[in-house]
Each structure stands twice: as C-alpha cells, then as structure tokens.
Amino acid sequence: MATAWPTFKTINLKIMKILVATEKPFAAAAVTGIREVVEQGGHELVLVEKGTKQDMINAVKDCAGLIVRSDKVDKEVFDAAPQLKVVVRAGAGYDNIDLDEATKHGVCVMNTPGQNANAVAELVFGMLISLIRNRYNGTSGTELKGKTLGIHAYGAVGRNVARIAKGFDMKVSALDPFVKDEVMEADGIIPVHSVEDLYKNNQYVSLHIPANDQTRKSVNRTLLELMPKGGTLINAARKEVINEEDLAAVLEARTDLHYIADVKPENAAELEEKFADRVFFTPKKMGAQTAEANINAGLAAANQVVAHLKDGFNRFQVNK
Ligand code: 3PG
Fold first, then answer.
1. Using CA of residue 191, residue 196, residue 198, residue 201, what is the dihedral sign?
2. CA of residue 283 to ligand 1 center, whole Å
3. How many whole angstroms separate alpha carbon 64 and alpha carbon 268?
4. How do residues 182-196 score in pLDDT, each as one tens digit?
5. What letter would DSSP give residue 5?
6. 242 Cβ contact list (under 8 Å, min separation 6)
7. Cys bridge to 175: 132, 192, 215, 226, which one at CB 3.0-4.6 A?
8. Rounded to 5 degrees, what angle do the CA atoms 88, 296, 177 make?
9. At residue 225, what are phi and psi to the nearest 5 degrees?
10. For residue 313, what is the enclosing H or E element?
11. What is the whole-number distance in angstroms between the Cα of residue 188 and the centre of ligand 1?
C-alpha cells in the first residue's frame, strides 16, 4: 500500500529584499517599525535615505519590494528592477509613479490611503492661522470662527479638514462628485455641486484634488477670479493642479487675494517678490512630515509589501 504522506502548505522561505528609498526620510521610529515588519516577514530591509534617483536605481536592482514617498518611480527604475513585484507609495498621491510602466513590468502599485491625512489637514490650519494672524507681526489679524470654508474634494484629507474646521466653528461646504450628499450631510457639511459655486461662496477654499490628466492646471483664472473679496486659496495637494501663470495674473489684478501652499510653485520667487504678504509656501512638502503620519503610512506600506510578497495582497492597488 502506498504511503499516505501528509499534505503541507507550500511555505515560501525565500528571503527577498525590500528597499525603502526616500529623499525625505521617515521619522526614526517609523524606520524602526518598518524594519521590524520587513524582518518579521522574513525579508531584508535596504534603506536609502536622502538619496538621488540614481541611488534608488542602484539599490533596487535585486529588490522585490519598494517603498517610496514622493520619490519618482519611472521607466528607468522599473527597467533596473527585474525582480520587482510591488511598489507601495507610503502616502496618498501616486502621481510620482508611472503606472503604465509598472503594469508593463508586471508590478503591483499600491498607496496607503488615509494614513497621513490628519497631518496634512492640521498643516492646512497651521498655514492658515499664520496667514490670518499676519505671521504674528504684532498687528491685528482675523479669526476663523463663523467664516466659510469650501473643501475641494472630500477624500481622507478633505474629511479631516472638515472635522477640524467644525471645531473652529466654521461654515463648511464641500465639492466631490464621487461622494454622496448624504455622506457629507451626516458629517454636518453642506454639499456643493458646482466648482464655480465652491470658489464663489467661500472665503477660504482648501484644495485636495489629486494631480492627474483631468486636474492638472484646472484651478485657473476663471475659478480664482470668482473668489470673494479677501479670499484665500490653500493648496496642500499638488502644485501641478494650479495654473501658475493664471495665479500670478489674478494675484496681480486682485490685491485682496491670498495663496498659501504646501510646496513652492514653479514661479515661487516671482510670487514671493511681488506679493510677499499674500503668499506663503513651505520650502519642502511638509504636510505628511510628522512622526505619527510617518509611522502610520510607513508601517502600512511595509505591511502591504510583505503581504503582497506572501500571498498577493492587493487591496489598495492603483494600477488595476
Ligand atoms: C501624500 O500624497 O501622501 C502627501 O502629499 C505626502 O507626501 P510625502 O510623503 O512626500 O510627504
């Protein structure tokens, strides 16, 4: 009689390399946590912080997983990485990753939605309060209480902005064609159905749209001109969604308007020189740069990479 061998699940014992390549490093505690997740998953962590793209290319060649932030992952990187199976953008926006190339190379790309949203939302108010208190120069400023705030896109960041704004007792409305009115209403937010109304009826507009083919340069002269007297546009999303020539022209024509943004526009020097009191830009993208956000997004990214390498986890895949 033939021996009845017990059946075993196939266990993948192959140690793979997972590269974390971040020009803007995670907080040390986040790196420690990422290392733990990677090593507990049976893999090896390769860390390239503050490196160039070439450093990423050199390091990725024998890696199966890659974790990045806003770091560019394009054809050159995919071509250099024949063993790469998964890229996770530790954050929300994945406009830095060439999705078509990823798909051509058979690589799964995921983001970590919501993990750094509170940090970005808090910075919106950090920048805004600094502006309306005249950067604490001793002169009289204004308050947020009772003022109108329009949120352009009601995703994870937009929702956190709304929650905080309600704490300031602001009147909050939001535009998002992908979110049902009932969802906003349940949060105490007034749904808006036209982008023109959003810009026309709110003293403050906070931008949270992604940068893609539909949205690039979409915040243009027409919208900016609609803003009420003394209006402020806050951009903690991407500089690419603003038409920067239009922005300069409207700031020139409307001496009452303000623009504050998390990361400098291409024409920052011109805007800062001409409109010093009415613009503010972070020198480096700072929205998600908190220990908490780094830990949340970094650990989520590490867990997603390990789970993908183990059993094909793809819940947050963006190149389907
Ligand atoms: C995001 O898209 O998650 C934010 O813009 C944060 O980007 P960062 O990781 O480069 O700080």
1. negative
2. 14
3. 39
4. 999 999 999 999 999
5. P
6. 217, 219, 235, 261, 265
7. 192
8. 70
9. -65, -25
10. none
11. 27
122 by DSSP, 3-state: which?
Answer: helix
Question: Which of 49, 69, 286, 318 has most ligand 1 atoms within 8 Å of its beta carbon, as the pocket-test mutant?
Answer: 69
Cα(191)–Cα(154) distance, integer angstroms: 10
Q: Report which DSSP code applies to 169.
A: T
Q: What are phi and psi of 181, to 5 degrees?
A: -55, -40
CA distance 296 to 248: 37
Going from the N-terminus, what domains does the chain have, and what CATH number goes with each? 17-115+290-311 (3.40.50.720), 117-281 (3.40.50.720)
pTM, full prediction: 0.93
Q: How far apart are CA 63 and CA 214, in angstroms?
A: 33
The alpha carbon of 91 and the centre of ligand 1 are apart by a number of angstroms equal to 5
Assess whether pLDDT exceeds 90 at residue 9. Answer: no
> Percent helix, strand and coil across the chain, each rounded to 5?
40, 20, 45
User: Which residues lie with the beta carbon below 6 Å from any ligand 1 atom?
Assistant: 24, 69-70, 91-93, 116, 285, 287-289
E runs forming strands in the chain: 17-22, 44-49, 65-68, 86-89, 108-111, 148-152, 171-175, 190-192, 204-207, 232-235, 258-261, 279-281
What residues form DSSP beta bridges with 71?
Answer: none
Q: Is 300 helix (H, G, I), strand (E, B) or coil?
A: helix
Three-state SS for 154? coil
**Residues 136, 125: Cα–Cα separation, whole Å:** 15
Q: pLDDT > 90: what percent of the chain?
A: 95
pLDDT one-digit tens code per residue, 125-181? 999 999 999 999 999 999 999 999 999 999 999 999 999 999 999 999 999 999 999
User: Of 235, 241, 294, whose CA–CA distance to 112 is shortest?
Assistant: 294
pLDDT at 6 exceeding the cut of 50:
no
Specify the length of the chain in residues.
320
